[in-house]
Design goal:
Elements (H helix, E strand, L loop, with lengths): L1 H17 L3 H12 L4 H8 L8 H36 L19 H15 L3 E2 L5 E3 H4 L25 E3 L5 H10 L4 E10 L11 E11 L4 H16 L5 E8 L2 E10 L16 E10 L1 H7 L7 E7 L1 H9 L12 H4 L3
Parallel strand pairs: 1-4
Antiparallel strand pairs: 2-3, 4-5, 5-9, 6-7, 7-8, 8-9
Helix pairs in contact: 1-4, 2-4, 5-10, 7-9
The structure holds adenosine-5'-[phenylalaninyl-phosphate].
Adenosine-5'-[phenylalaninyl-phosphate] binds next to β5, β8, β9 and α10.
Length: 341
């Protein structure tokens, strides 16, 4: 058996020397070291040998298989080079032809928008905090000062799951509770980006799935003026120093007082157009001072700590930036839309 193996090796190496095409190389490889090749067959028959002969034959078979494996690999390289040289000589490959362009992926308009928003907030000292898409009813509502059966729950049309109390988050605000419980009693300065889900009538401005970007700052002596100044600074960096910002009273159960923020319409410079519904203003976020009940639920003593929160809609911001008329394009996966960015 040992002799047979040595002869097989010697003969294979000689045959290999003469091979110049890939197909013959493949056949020889299969016949010698393939699954049904001679070496494999020898290895399988080792059990029939006398027990004292088995180790030597097994060892040699393995060594030869390895040596031949590298000899085949080396030959493969040579054959490839040979075939390439041959086809060049025969003119099968025209090396003067221009290369085919590689199709490159692009960033989705929301991703681009989000990255710009992250950059601005990072510069202003806010770090990203990721919360969960699947929430419990308590964190999404109750701990945010929206008790069960409270009419304020109607502001958010919810996707419920078959598990009692498990829902898809309707906004990024439940992340406020999670961040506070993680950090209390340390000060916080975070943004919480993420996908939100609402069982809503789909329209040009509303989708059932969309991004929000929440912001939260907690500490001692944080006041409404800090909120106004922070949002104004964001708007200045995002929309330019010349854009006016205005604040309107509003209501959110988890902030008190609450306000909505508008910027001068970026499309008509405040003159009035279809996009701003001829008001000259565009709403960019909801915001307010964190409600004492929410602070308490997050683990902060409202007598000592205060904070502000805000929430933006990145798709709506991207619609303004790129002049996109309908939010349904964002998830339509139509390449004609996506390739424009
Ligand atoms: C909220 O969801 C509050 N959680 C925001 C907030 C956070 C207020 C912190 C105070 C403090 P609202 O429902 O208005 O608020 O949504 C915020 C933004 O999300 C909207 O301005 C809009 O840009 C975006 N948005 C809301 N619903 C949709 C929708 N169906 N499709 C696309 N964007 C939406």
């Amino acid at each position: 058996m040992l002799e047979k193996l040595k002869t097989l090796k010697a003969e294979t190496l000689i045959e290999l020397e003469e091979i110049t095409d890939a197909e013959s190389l493949r056949q020889l490889k299969n016949a010698v070291i393939g699954k049904k090749g001679e070496i494999t067959t020898i290895k399988r028959s080792i059990g029939q040998l006398a027990p004292e002969d088995r180790p030597a034959v097994g060892q040699l078979a393995n060594e030869i298989a390895q040596e031949l494996e590298s000899a085949f690999a080396e030959r493969e390289e040579l054959v490839k080079a040979h075939e390439m040289a041959q086809s060049l000589e025969e003119g099968e490959i025209d090396v003067t032809l221009p290369g085919r362009p590689v199709a490159r992926g692009r960033l989705h308009p929301t991703t681009r928008m989000l990255r710009d928003i992250y950059d601005i907030w990072a510069d202003m000292g806010f770090q990203v905090y990721r919360s969960r898409d699947v929430e419990d009813d308590d964190t999404n509502f109750t701990l945010l000062n929206i008790p069960p059966h409270h009419p304020a729950r109607d502001m958010w049309d919810t996707f419920y799951t078959t598990d009692e109390g498990v829902i898809l988050r309707t906004h990024t605000s439940p992340g406020q509770i999670r961040a506070m419980r993680d950090y209390a009693p340390e000060p916080i300065r975070v943004i919480l980006p993420g996908m939100c889900y609402r069982y809503e009538q789909i329209s040009a401005r509303s989708e059932v799935q969309f991004n929000q970007l929440e912001g939260l700052a907690i500490g001692k002596n944080i006041r409404m003026t800090d909120l106004k100044g922070t949002i104004a600074e964001f708007a200045r960096r995002m929309y330019g120093a010349e854009r006016k910002v205005r604040y309107r009273c509003s209501h959110f159960p988890f902030t008190e007082p609450s306000m909505e923020v508008d910027v001068e319409c970026v499309l008509c410079d405040g003159e009035g157009c279809g996009v701003c519904k001829y008001t000259g203003w565009l709403e960019i976020c909801g915001s307010g001072m964190v409600h004492p009940v929410v602070l308490k639920n997050g683990g902060y003593d409202p007598a000592v700590y205060s904070g502000f929160a805000f929430g933006f809609g990145p798709e709506r911001m991207a619609m303004l930036r790129y002049g996109i008329q309908d939010i349904r394009y964002f998830w339509g996966n139509d390449l004609r839309f996506l390739e424009q960015f």
